[in-house]
């Protein structure tokens, strides 16, 4: 998998050389390339923004640098196998399902906007050429797309076959398909007693059926308490 990042702050992506992602890069599972959008400007100030047409606050990212960067980094021929991700507060929700879909893709280009956003024609052009995902991390406002791109990267790459040492751990996580859309149950490890707090006895019983039931019940309880939006009537009935 090749990952490209276009940003006026390419240094954000130096962190991708650390930890598991660094190991994946070493193992050849992912190749990471960060690009400074300003390298495709031609004025003395390396300008990437301008005032919004129609007025309004803030600045908008000019289309020209993006187009020239696309030409050099991706190419000038349409190729739907290239997935271009635009993090945006007005994007579709980024979910585990989207992460799973992207984990089987060979090439992802992250376009990290700043200011009030990117000239919409850049997204329209990208849609005419590649497979585009305009996605939002959640209902809060960041200052740009870089942090979102890092979060999306981690969610996607950890699902790439061969990346996680123990793929079974993926199957038991919150939001993974195997959990019926339920939140993960509480986790415990040794010591059994810690500052007057004990591991639930059932988890030390060695009775796998009771342990499985306790975990399921806890997942249902937590999901109903914290994320009623994840429990539809059918799921509730089953639980
Ligand atoms: N994903 C995601 C995001 C973003 C996000 C993503 C890209 C950009 C490019 C510029 N800004 C600043 C900005 C502020 C105000 C209105 C528009 N834009 C971004 C914010 N905010 N919250 C999320 N869940």
UniProtKB/TrEMBL annotation:
Keywords for the protein's UniProt record, in alphabetical order: Cytoplasm, Methyltransferase, S-adenosyl-L-methionine, Transferase, tRNA processing
Enzyme class, UniProt record, top EC level: transferase
GO biological process: tRNA N1-guanine methylation
Any one Gene Ontology cellular component term annotated for this protein: cytosol
Gene3D superfamilies per the UniProt record, alphabetical: 3.40.1280.10, tRNA(m1g37)methyltransferase, domain 2 (1.10.1270.20)
Described function: Specifically methylates guanosine-37 in various tRNAs.
Subunit composition and interactions: Homodimer.
Protein name: tRNA (guanine-N(1)-)-methyltransferase
Species of the source: Cutibacterium porci
